[in-house]
Amino acid sequence: MNDIERLIAIEEIKRLKARYFYGIDNKDWDLWAREVWAPDARLIVGEMGKDVGPREVLIDWVKAQSADQVSVHHGHMPDIEILSDTEAKGVWAMEDLIWRSKEHPLNGEYSHVHGWGHYRETYVKLDVGWRILTTELTRLRTEWVKVF
């Protein structure tokens, strides 16, 4: 892979992560299934003790977790390394804001969470383009708010 191909791959992965954020915040699960995740993908959320996969199980789990929530996710300062023509890894600084109703509180009692941390990811290039193979969310700081 030459330098131009490497830069194109990095930009394609940035667009992939943009679809990830758009899909989760808009609850566009079809987009997530079609354009974000590899079939054998895994989502790791250490603070919840979860390691969920493959893709269909992962999407169903996130759908259930999202319930009636409103979320806003931001990804910043990606550090993406192309390992081969079909493999890459990256780290994204992240910020997320999640609001829930009384009927579906966070951790049983909270209406709002504001988190800051990182996504550590691996990517695979398939016939349909780059897809997320694994993503691990780690938060460095989390603010929990009770409004109910």
How would you concisely characterize the structure shown here?
The protein is α+β, with helices and mostly antiparallel strands. The chain has helices spanning 3-25, 29-35, 55-66, and strands at 37-45, 50-52, 70-82, 87-99, 112-126, 129-145.
Structure description:
The chain has 148 residues and is an alpha+beta fold. It has a single domain (3-145), classed as Nuclear Transport Factor 2, Chain: A (Roll), CATH 3.10.450. The protein contains 3 helices and 6 strands. The protein has a 6-stranded mixed sheet. A hairpin with a 2-residue loop joins strand 5 and strand 6 (129-145). The mean pLDDT is 95.
Write the layout of secondary structure elements.
Layout: H1 3-25, H2 29-35, E1 37-45, E2 50-52, H3 55-66, E3 70-82, E4 87-99, E5 112-126, E6 129-145
Parallel strand pairs: 1-6
Antiparallel strand pairs: 1-2, 3-4, 4-5, 5-6
Helix pairs in contact: 1-2
Keywords, please?
alpha+beta; elongated; 3 helices; 6-stranded mixed β-sheet; Nuclear Transport Factor 2, Chain: A; 148 residues
Helix content: 25-40%
Instruction: Let me know the number of strands.
Output: 6
Describe the sheet with the most strands.
6 strands, mixed
What is the CATH topology?
Nuclear Transport Factor 2, Chain: A
Give the helix tally. 3
Write the CATH architecture name: Roll
Question: Distance between termini?
Answer: 54 Å
Task: Classify the secondary structure makeup into a structural class.
Answer: alpha+beta
Task: Please tell me what the overall shape is.
Answer: elongated
Strand content: over 45%
Estimated radius of gyration: 16 Å
Q: Which strand order do you get reading across the main beta sheet?
A: 2-1-6-5-4-3
Low-confidence stretches: none
Mean pLDDT: 95
